[in-house]
């Protein structure tokens, strides 16, 4: 994923910053504990598509 795009993409729920998890191909919102998938290089920034993260995940 292009790092320039990462600078402008925000969580659609809280409008906060997201971080990239290259291993899982997800964008992570630590505030909402949501992981948005990246499919074929395109982030899917829909709350209904996001995976809820476990409390111990992403620390």
UniProtKB/TrEMBL annotation:
Q: Report the protein name in the record.
A: UPF0434 protein A1QC_11765
GO cellular component terms, A-Z: cytosol
Family affiliation:
Belongs to the UPF0434 family.
Q: PANTHER family from the entry? A: PROTEIN PREY, MITOCHONDRIAL, ZGC:162634
Write down the species. Answer: Vibrio rumoiensis 1S-45
SUPFAM superfamilies documented for this protein: Trm112p-like
TM helices/strands, residue ranges: none
Q: Which InterPro entries match?
A: Trm112-like
Q: Which domain of life is it from?
A: Bacteria
């Amino acid at each position: 994923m292009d790092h320039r795009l990462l600078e402008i993409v925000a969580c659609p729920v809280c409008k906060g910053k997201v971080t990239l998890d290259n291993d899982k191909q997800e964008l992570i919102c630590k505030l909402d504990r949501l992981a948005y998938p990246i499919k074929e290089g395109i982030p899917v920034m829909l709350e209904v598509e996001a995976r809820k993260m476990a409390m111990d995940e992403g620390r």
